[in-house]
Amino acid sequence: MKRLEGKVCLITGAGQGIGEATALKFAREGAVVVACDLKPEQVEAVAQACRAAGAQAEGHVMDVTDRAQVDAVVAGVLAAHGRIDVLVNNAGITQDARLQKMTLEQFDRVIDVNLRGVFHCSQAVSNQMVSQGSGVILNASSVVGLYGNFGQTNYAATKFGVIGFTKTWARELSPKGVRVNAVAPGFIKTPMIATVPDKVLDDLAQKVPLKRLGQAEEIANAYAFLASDEASYITGAVLEVDGGLTL
Ligand code: NAP
């Protein structure tokens, strides 16, 4: 049985990497996929791939830092489908530097996308989910949001912050039928880590008990589970999907 049959699922940062894999996984699970990202050609290609997998799907340009754009996309989805069942707050960026070197621009930009963007999208769908009496919000944290990381002051703060959102919104919204959870991926092979030299990636892989980096599809599988009714008693949780990295 398809686990997300007919569920209207909005995924941010769906143009590549984990977001793209999640859109395709959700499509195969029967979802109505709303794939959102910055580049029109990317969202259209992902929506097309979802349709090729047999799903109803549409692509939207949506910058999560632009509240007016987020509100317009949510309004459009509601006009077309009448509901939003799942929001995956996947869009995220890095701009790394050590504390002593980090510019205010680097700090602000990462906070803007990874933290304010998650707030924008979640707030934009929250009234609808509460009035439906059902919904799922899934947030992209990271192992860096559990343990910190050298050179990632801004990113770590956002990924810890997303866990704070998750637990707060789970308290506020779960009594109204809306589940809120986070996924904390380890090192996953996506364009986000494409600039990391192979030697560094090989060393990282050796630190993982499963002795390899993760695939975007392995994070998508976790999102699909948490989005589905199989996770009906799970809220406020942070699911680590990291090959045992944080053991
Ligand atoms: P990715 O390959 O860089 O994909 C992220 C997508 O988000 C890109 O398409 C990017 O567009 C888009 N995006 C950036 N800024 C945006 C904005 N303001 N509004 C809307 N979309 C925006 O990253 P990924 O590796 O798939 O990561 C996805 C999520 O998982 C992120 O939140 C990341 O922090 C988290 N995560 C990843 C890893 C990992 O190892 N890969 C580990 C832990 C957590 P552009 O490319 O055009 O900028």
Automatic annotation (TrEMBL):
NADP(+) binds at residues 90, 155-159, 188. It catalyses: a (3R)-hydroxyacyl-[ACP] + NADP(+) = a 3-oxoacyl-[ACP] + NADPH + H(+). GO terms for biological process: fatty acid biosynthetic process. Pathway: Lipid metabolism; fatty acid biosynthesis. It is an enzyme of class 1 (oxidoreductase). Signal peptide: none annotated. Coiled coil: none annotated. Its EC number is 1.1.1.100. Residues 7-186 form the Ketoreductase domain. The active site is at 155 (proton acceptor). One of its GO terms (molecular function) is 3-oxoacyl-[acyl-carrier-protein] reductase (NADPH) activity. Keywords: Fatty acid biosynthesis, Fatty acid metabolism, Lipid biosynthesis, Lipid metabolism, NADP, Oxidoreductase. Homotetramer. Belongs to the short-chain dehydrogenases/reductases (SDR) family. PANTHER family: 3-OXOACYL-[ACYL-CARRIER-PROTEIN] REDUCTASE, SHORT-CHAIN DEHYDROGENASES/REDUCTASES FAMILY MEMBER. Catalyzes the NADPH-dependent reduction of beta-ketoacyl-ACP substrates to beta-hydroxyacyl-ACP products, the first reductive step in the elongation cycle of fatty acid biosynthesis. This is 3-oxoacyl-[acyl-carrier-protein] reductase.
